[in-house]
Amino acid sequence: MKEKLQALRAEALTQVEQAETLNDLQQVRVSYLGKKGPITEVLRGMGQLSAEERPVLGELANKVRGEIAEELDRKKQALETAALNEQLKTETIDVTLPGRPVQVGGSHLLSDIVTEIEDLFIGMGFEVREGPEVETDYYNFEALNLPKGHPARDMQDSFYITEDLLLRTHTSPVQARTMGEYKGNKPVKMICPGKVYRRDTDDATHSHQFTQIEGLYVDKNVRMSDLKGVLNQFAKQFFGEEREIRLRPSFFPFTEPSVEMDISCKVCQGKGCSVCKQTGWIEILGGGMVHPSVLEMAGYDPNIYSGFAFGMGPERIAMLKYGVDDIRHFYTNDIRFLQQYHQV
Question: What is the pTM of this model?
Answer without folding.
Answer: 0.67
